[in-house]
Amino acid sequence: SEPVARFIERKVETAAALQFGDTLRQLTGFERVEVWVTVNDVAGRAPLRRLTALIEATRRSYAQDLFAFTLWGWALAAPDGPIWFTRGQTPDLTVERRNAGMHAATGRTVRALELGNPPRGTA
Question: What is the pLDDT of residues 71-122, one digit of tens each?
């Protein structure tokens, strides 16, 4: 729900700073950080567009290898399923997703996912 610019400032730049210096190892002992981001868009009711905007902003910051993105409802249904967009991959927003409320791998209904209003004439 935070603006994309704030996401970049607070999450992406912080993760990149930790990863690309010796700071992460000094602070935690870990050599690498990976950030998993779940996306919901209650206000705009367009979670796939929001997910895409975050991925594209992350890609522009050269930190896309540190992040994996998915929709919040998909993560609830099957967090270990084939639901994650990594390395700057984005969903194809031209594909109509009438069944976007169904998790592709499990076929279970994802009730918590806000998909937005269906295109006119399809509901």
Answer: 888 888 878 878 888 888 887 776 655 445 444 444 444 443 333 333 333 3
Report the predicted TM-score, pTM, of the whole model to 2 decimal places. Answer: 0.71
Q: What is the DSSP string of the chain?
A: ---HHHHIIIIIHHHHHHHTSSHHHHHHS-S---EEEEE--TTTS-HHHHHHHHHHHHHHTT-GGGEEEEEHHHHHH-TTSS--EETT----TTS--TTTTB-TTT--B-TT----PPPTT--
71 forms beta bridges with 39
